[in-house]
């Protein structure tokens, strides 16, 4: 939903360990549990207990927390200073950065290396674009699958491999957007490109990569998503984006159109579980809400605050969701900058102190 202009933005998420009941290494159908690479936690809602985070929380080689969720933030500008300012406002550090690149970029760049040095993880999204070309030229998925960009993609893979720590990688996030399918190629082209990039990374030694398939989570894009699953063997995480727009896309905010985080999240969550198996998806894989945010209601700021405040409780009910990234930025006429709304800042800060999002992992700031 956000589009490729987000190349200039970065998403920062936090590895946190939820204080969930039944946190263990053996998933069960109804209680929170940890997962291992390529496997999922419970497929249905569970329940949580209060109290301190369990000690000894870890992250697997595929970036899956042993008990909990990755809590996140998108900020503009995507600088250490920008991130630190929001960390100060909400009273806690974050620990992984979601950043956007094209096919020819240097990955990781200096800023990303600095974040890793500070103890943070990375989520790298690679678009079938060349941002240095006029208009940020779209290249299409077929040329990627055909090997046109093998040299630069291999260099990126080697750069990521050198980081040693787990790195989330996404090829063409939100490929189920109608405009992308109209300009970048067919579903077959996308799947072939995804698998080709995956294989290049493996050949380059980037075995520390965890592959995150990111779709748009809106109902009108579900049929397209069903055509874009590249295969269980090349996907580690199922991911989608969740937004409460309330008319902001038409520059007409209407509080009556507010939809809760849970209700918006469940559109794709239910799709994955009910329709996923029909097109070959292993719907038990770890799930990630890559980006999420709510429109701001200037005359009713408490509505925005309540939207964010509800997130930890929802995560406790759906333990298969292992990562959430808050989008603190502007997209066209939609302003999701909760950091400029005092009531929302208070709500996010309070959410970060919930026992459900208290980290058992060591967190640092740049």
Describe what this molecule looks like in 3D.
- This protein is α/β, with parallel strands linked by helices.
- It is built from eleven helices and 13 strands.
- It has helices spanning 80-90, 110-117, 141-146, 150-161, 178-183, 187-203, 222-226, 261-274, 301-309, 311-317, 342-352; strands at 10-16, 69-75, 96-101, 121-126, 129-130, 137-138, 167-171, 209-216, 237-244, 287-294, 321-328, 330-331, 334-335.
- It has a nine-stranded mixed barrel with strand order 1-2-11-10-9-8-7-4-3, surrounded by five helices. A two-stranded antiparallel ribbon has the order 5-6.
- α2 (110-117) links the parallel β3 (96-101) and β4 (121-126).
- The two termini are 29 Å apart.
- Mean pLDDT is 82; it is low at 1-52.
Keywords summarizing the entry:
366 residues; 29% helix; two-stranded antiparallel ribbon; disordered N terminus
Which stretches are poorly predicted, pLDDT < 50 over at least 5 residues? 1-52
Task: Give the overall silhouette.
Answer: globular
User: How many distinct beta strands?
Assistant: 13
Strand content range: 15-25%
